[in-house]
Amino acid sequence: MTYRTISRRSILAGLTTAATAGALALAGCSRSDPLGTDAGNDAGTASSRTIVIGSQDYYSSEIIAEIYAQALEDADYTVDRQFRIGQREAYAPEIEAGAIDLFPEYTGPLLQYWKPDTESRLSEDVYAELLETTPDGLRLLDQSPATDQNGYTVTQEFADEWDLTTIGDLTKVTTPLTLGANSEGEHRPYGPEGLATTYGVEVAFTPIEDDGGPLTVKALKDGDIQLAIIYTADPSIAENGLVSLEDPKGLFIASHVVPLVSDNVDDAAAAIINKISAAMNPEDLIALNARSVKEELPAATIASDWLAQQNLG
């Protein structure tokens, strides 16, 4: 099992159990079968081809990829781990060239990579258009309920004071609002101009160059800013008593975990991955991320524990 390390980051969830009869080989696993696939298959029926699994330079992506890897190994597939490859510009050409067979992706950002002018914003629209946009030789499996995307975040106190649940509720606020985010966020579609156009909310902008990290959280808690852009699966949200505002109009493009696979991934392997996706929810993703950030556990340990806790039989 080869590892290629280049850095860290996210996670996954989503679908069905169907596979060709007799194709799943789960006999002879070294531990109990957390995926609960039907027995009665020969241990030698799994694909003899190696499945190359990649991940982003992002901790939750690595954890999800490791969950895929361990589940497939339990089904007697041979896995080659190519984790921490980098960002989409680095790994997407490798996937398109067939060098990587399985990758935990995110629907909205992937669609924008392949189709920058997309107008789809909401979950089902994004997934449907992504299915149409995926290049030949690749296919999407089911998207997971698990999400990890940019979102507007406020303190719990601020949300309670103004009765905020959605981004649109910010129109109730009668005091000046300041948004804090990386400097490029000022001119992104979801920045101040997009917020004003989509929801009718006017804000000032303060650059904070830490990707929604500790400096951004401190600015929120100190009242220097009232809004921040923080990933919705970031464990710092719960740890610091923050609230992600709902986005019913899709100012931020939907971003569900979705497995992207090559033709080297057979139907039996795809069924295993879909079952994992279906079992993972947004709360799971936050908890997995927290174990990486707070406990500093390796992805292999986090993945093994999550699989052992699943009752997917």
TrEMBL record:
Pfam families to which the protein is assigned, alphabetical: OpuAC (PF04069)
Signal peptide bounds: 1-27
PROSITE patterns: PROKAR_LIPOPROTEIN, TAT
SUPFAM superfamilies: Periplasmic binding protein-like II
One cellular component (GO) term of this entry: ATP-binding cassette (ABC) transporter complex
Keywords, in A-Z order: Signal
InterPro entries: ABC_Gly_betaine_transp_sub-bd (IPR007210), TAT_signal (IPR006311)
ABC-type glycine betaine transport system substrate-binding domain span: 50-309
One GO MF term attached to the UniProt entry: transmembrane transporter activity
Name of the protein in its database record: Twin arginine translocation (Tat) signal profile
Organism of derivation: Propionibacterium ruminifibrarum
Lineage, highest ranks first: Bacteria, Bacillati, Actinomycetota, Actinomycetes, Propionibacteriales
